[in-house]
Amino acid sequence: MYCVKKIKDDLYWVGGTDRRLALFENAFPIPKGISYNSYLLIDEKTVLFDTVDHSISGQFFENLKHALEGRELNYLVVNHMEPDHCATLGELVKEHPELKIVCNQKTVPLLKQFFEFPVEDKLVLVKEGDSLSTGRHNLTFFMAAMVHWPEVMVTYDTEDKILFSADAFGTFGAMNGNLYADEVNFETEWLSEARRYYTNIVGKFGAQVQSLLKKVSGLEVALLCPLHGPVWRKNIGWFVDKYQKWSSYAPEGPAVMLAYGSIYGHTENMVNVLASCLAEEGIQNIKVYDVSATHSSYLVSEAFRCSHLVLASVTYNGGLFGSMEQLLLELKAHNLQNRTVALMENGSWGLIAAKKMEEILSSMKNITLVDTKVSVKSSLKEAEGQQIRELAQQLAASIKEQG
Ligand code: FEO
């Protein structure tokens, strides 16, 4: 049966949720599932904003049919051409041969790459600032290249002040009946997944997100409609502020995460001792992660949240422990910058891990290394315990300075 949500008298959510997919993009665990949002505007012309992933095509087409109530579908606005939002586009075109596709020039090659129907016949090309009247509504288009693909744009309904924001302001997590962010405990139950979604999917493109935020900052936005996760009608500024921080690579506040790569537990012990010392120094909400047991997407997300990182790695085969190396390369790939980092290393044959970590960190922007580096051979001894206490004091002082 259809599962349509009415947003306004003439606007409907016709998307769906997937709780079966294990890995989004075959890369990121989504234990809480994912939603693919699609919106239908019923005006003098009917307009669909993006389609959905093939996994929920059955639900989507049932929803669309119900919401159209026998009307023709006149326009499909393609804000984003990634298959999680366009996999059902080909089938949609077959079902609605009268349909025109509203998109920008950068979308066209992607349409032709993914589909074989005669694309040119269907196009209504728009560029920055162009408008399309659909009757009562007027849609204005703003280009948002690299948020998250080159062809991305966002659409603003000037009549009802609605921003269809593509991937921006989306989140991992299946919708559980409630459509609006103010109907769920967003800050406690969704924010971490919104952060993990942003940092891993779009995090690399902070400059482009900043440029989009600047572009839409002058718009009055009453409804924010992303392609994943809840719709926003209250407190939009709070979420925009998170995006400002994430996209400018500023931490959300003073906070520390400790990530360790340990084989037999001795490096883990170093981190546990440091975490306890930090607590004694008055630092709260310390987070400790085993890089071998935690998917890197969670660690990337935490690194974006925290102002201070402690990376502790064992030396492995004369180099860096594999999962720690992967984490560092991920942080670099996602453009993480402006962080204070402390290093701890361990090695039984020799000590090389800190040097290897420093090599990667030195190729990242504005990373400040804490002076004290803890080096341990095989297992932590009392003498090195003193080094850890000193590191805790230095770190705590630096964290408090940012408070
Ligand atoms: Fe939700 Fe970039 O696709």
Based on the coordinates given, report the CATH architecture of the largest domain.
4-Layer Sandwich
- Please state the CA-atom Rg, rounded to the nearest Å: 24 Å
Name the ligand types.
MU-OXO-diiron
Number of strands: 23
Which homologous superfamily in CATH is the superfamily of the largest domain? Answer: Ribonuclease Z/Hydroxyacylglutathione hydrolase-like
Q: Helical element count? A: 12
Mean pLDDT over the residues: 97
**Would you give the CATH topology of the largest domain?**
Metallo-beta-lactamase, Chain A
Shape: elongated
Low-confidence stretches are: none
CATH domain class name of the largest domain = Alpha Beta
Annotation keywords:
about 400 residues; alpha/beta; Metallo-beta-lactamase, Chain A; 7-stranded mixed β-sheet; 12 helices; 23 strands; binds MU-OXO-diiron
Q: What does this protein look like?
A:
- The chain is 34% helix and 23% strand.
- The chain has helices at residues 57-68, 83-86, 89-95, 107-114, 186-202, 206-216, 236-247, 266-280, 296-305, 322-333, 353-361, 382-401; strands spanning 5-8, 11-13, 16-18, 23-24, 28-29, 34-36, 39-42, 46-49, 75-77, 100-103, 123-125, 131-133, 138-143, 153-157, 162-164, 223-225, 256-261, 287-290, 308-316, 319-320, 339-347, 367-369, 374-377.
- It has twelve helices and 23 strands.
- It folds into two domains: 5-247, Metallo-beta-lactamase, Chain A (4-Layer Sandwich); 256-402, Flavodoxin domain (Rossmann fold).
- The protein is elongated and about 80 Å long.
- Helix 6 packs antiparallel against helix 7 (236-247).
- The chain is α/β, with parallel strands linked by helices.
- A hairpin with a 4-residue loop joins strand 14 and strand 15 (162-164).
- The chain has a seven-stranded mixed sheet, with helices on one face. Strands 17, 18, 19, 20, 21, 22 and 23 form a seven-stranded mixed sheet that branches. The protein has a five-stranded mixed sheet with strand order 12-13-14-15-16.
- The model has no long low-confidence stretch (mean pLDDT 97).
- The structure holds MU-OXO-diiron.
- MU-OXO-diiron binds at residues 80, 82, 84-85, 148-149, 167, 227-228.
